[in-house]
Amino acid sequence: MATTKKKQILKEKTRNVAIELWRFLIAVAIIGFHTGWIIARSCDGSLGYYMETSNWFFGSSEVLLVFTLTAGYFMVSHFKRRMADKEYASRSAGSRAWEYTWSRIKGLMPVLILGYVLGVLISTKFFYPDYNFQQVCTMIINSAWEFLGFHSVGLRSLGNEFFNLNGTLWFISAIIIVGYFLYWALCKNEDVTSGFVAPFLFIFLSGWWSFTDTRAAQTAWSTFGLQTTSTNGMGGSATSATAVIGFNNGLLFVMLGMLGGVLLYYLIQKVKEHKFTNGGKAALTILNIVASVLLLWYTIYPATWFNLERWTVSLLCIIVIGLTLLNVDGLTKALNNKVTNSLFKYLGSISLYIYMLHYPVAILVLRLLGQNTAETTYSFWLIFIPTVIITIVLSGVTKAIMDATILKKKEAK
Question: What angle do CA 312, 300, 49 make, to 5 degrees?
Fold first, then answer.
């Protein structure tokens, strides 16, 4: 009897690392997207670089939703755990929201700064080879808001220099900013937030996102029902002449995903009360396998065979992440095996670091390869594979340092 109870306790403590594997896979896919889209489009020959981009994970720009869904889900999970503390629950909503946000900032800001520093050191001599020391210093000072993490609200250099340094970090700042407001709303009134605000805004933003065919981008800008003329394929671009009040599309994209994560949390907690039959588990397994295959296919080959609409891809993200977090189907159970448990857990723990550091690494790889000619065009894989390896190693080193310093102090408190 005691042995059975001990096994049950150990089973309950086994972490669901299948979600960590998904986070890692998407982070790696994002490397492919930025290598192919942003950097390759800069290698038009004007700087002496040519790169073939016929196959380069273009669909991963849409499955970035996976990160926002999990961010929203685990935010609510954190909130529910802390609410068990009566002293904590008695504090003001603002106090608790700031505490939550500050803990996120402390955990990400060092890596955020590292990402910018690498961008400055590596990118200036690649994208702006004629910049002298004075011009680089001026660019850094003018981009102070970006160093403070306000990429996603539009506070960045009007010349968009930092878009080519490490502009991908808009996503991190958006998660922090949106997370503050959503956490405050939960603290203020959980019932209204989860029962009305979250579902209403999720439906509203989803419809707008699909109807306007908007893309997640820090340079894109939307007003209330109106977008500026698109010149970069990103759903509109704000300029100093944009006088109508609006929001950065990247901020809205993250809000949409985190709201979806909030809804997933409450839905999954309710579904967990249901006792699934073997037939039900088999059906969920088939659904998860089909959705996962379609999602991976779209990520790598978005315009071939399965020509999926973007809202369909978002639905696939929700299905896969929802079933993975539910942890009932056979696929998720198989991924949560004892052999790879520690590996998947570790890969998931460095996924955000991979996202934050990969962009300047890709530029560094191009610089190390050197200039080429149109006749000796670099293949996508020649740049992508070493970028992935270097980024993973750098992320692992960064995690080790963070665990031994900042995160260790955070856990001690």
Answer: 130
- The phi and psi torsions of 111 (rounded to 5 degrees) equal -75, -35
Q: How many CB atoms lie within 10 A of CB 362?
A: 25
In Å, the largest CA–CA distance within the chain is: 75
User: What's the angle, vertex CA 307, arms to CA 304 and CA 310, rounded to 5?
Assistant: 130
Phi, psi of 62 (to 5 degrees): -90, -35
Which residues, in sequence order, are CB contacts of 106 under 8 Å at separation 6+? Answer: 406, 410
- For residues 163 and 218, what is the distance between their CA atoms, to the nearest angstrom? 8
Residues 301, 297: Cα–Cα separation, whole Å: 6
Structure tokens at 156: 């960045």
What crossing angle do the helices spanning 198-212 and 249-271 adopt, rounded to 10°? 130
Q: Compute the chain's Rg from CA coordinates.
A: 22
| Mean pLDDT for back-to-back runs of 10 residues, the chain (413 residues) | 45 74 93 81 70 72 88 96 92 95 85 80 67 73 69 60 62 89 96 96 84 64 54 46 63 91 96 93 96 89 72 91 95 92 93 90 86 82 93 94 74 53
Residue indicated by tokens 């893309």: 215
Q: Give yes or no for a contact between 29 and 63, defined as CB atoms under 8 angstroms apart.
A: yes
Query: Which residue in this structure is represented by tokens 């995903």?
Result: 257
**DSSP codes, 278-301:** HHHHHHHHHHHHHHHHHHHHHHH-
Among candidate residues 349, 353, 300, the one with its CA nearest the CA of residue 118:
353
Distance CA(15)–CA(349), nearest Å, equals 13
Q: Which residue's structure tokens are 């999926």?
A: 308
- Assigned token pair, 270: 């309710």
Quote the CA–CA distance of 219 and 139 in Å, as a whole number. Answer: 18
Matching residue, tokens 């159970």: 333
Contact criterion met (CB below 8 Å) for 332 and 10 = no
pTM: 0.85
Q: Which helix (H) or strand (E) element contains residue 223?
A: strand 221-223
